[in-house]
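Reopening closed ticket. The problem is back. First fold of the pair:
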Amino acid sequence: MRFLKNNGLTLVLLLLFAGSIFGQWLAGWHVAMDDARRHGQPILSLLAYTASPEFLSSVFENWESEFLQMATYVVLTACFIQRGSAESKDPDAPTRDAELVTQAGKPGAPAILRWGPLWRALYARSLGIVLASLFLMSFVIHWTQSARVAAQDAIEHGEAAPTLWSYLGDAQLWFESFQNWQSEFLSTAVLVVLSIFLRQRESPESKAVAAPHSQTGE
């Protein structure tokens, strides 16, 4: 029970993720079967659909935008301020991560901070670096699998299939990406602004319910 209490947020989010991707998997398979029947093509098994470019492209198209949102949010909140927002650092507060050499000696500080200036610099930016890397990985998989879908579609219509590199400049790829990116940036901006005036009781993403609108951060 202690494990569940201490890790409940992660566990619930992973359960929601599992249920959602399972639903996408099954619904996408039925869509693919309907499309195959209309075109008189062989119907993929559920297992074959799992490895199909249609499914992989749709999954990583969404992961790409989510990791982009998280990476930019982490980096931009380190650089910019929105006074009054729970999602922003306080412009009047002292710098939290100054003097890392001194802070490395505090009890419980990560050991990597004592490995030297290079390791300190990398660790100090590790969250943004890893999230950006996950974005790039997801984008590459989305790009390559979407290119396979485009190639299959071109062959079915008697057209020349685009190469992987030529598809990188294709409008379809960027339409798929930008339609997700714009919504992620908008939703983040909305959260930043709404957290100035609205509250969610006991949430660390919200200021205290009785906190003034002018208060920035938690």
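Second fold of the pair, where the issue appears:
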Amino acid sequence: MKPEKLNADRVGLLPKLWGWAKQLALFIIFAIVITAVMDIWRGRDIPRDNLPDIKGVTLTGSDIDIKAMSQDQAVLVYFWGTWCPVCNFVSPAVDTMASMYPVVSVAMNSGPDDKMSQYLSHKGYGFETINDSNNEIARDWSVQLTPTLMVFKDGELIHYTTGFTSLPGMWWRILLN
């Protein structure tokens, strides 16, 4: 190939790359806006004032009090179920978050404690789990969709989202606190 032809090809490639980069940036901005609007819409039934406590005993026997835990740092609370197909994709990311940040999960209607412990062990999950076998905590919080993720800081609900949430999505929600 002639050198003039190579330079012409390079010059033509740069505007294409710039155009693709602009399209990608616009797509990312659009996705963030849509996600934020969906979070607000789906979270409209979650109480914001006079919040009920999330307290309980985990499957490992630890006493949990989210309000007290969240005084020092942000805490991720994960409502999920073993029966939830989307949770199968979100739980590994929650487990990764649990290795870096305080995470408490509330397993909704997922069976007796021994079965839950076996499930968590089989999957290799290390996050603390409160077994909400009768959905009492979920009802108090008006949680109807799984997975539901909440971030608490200083005893207050800061972020709320439902449905599939990626690991980067969880990170930015924690880091914004």
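Update: turned out to be a display glitch only; the data is intact. The first strand starts at residue 55 and ends at 57. The mean pLDDT is 85. Please close again.
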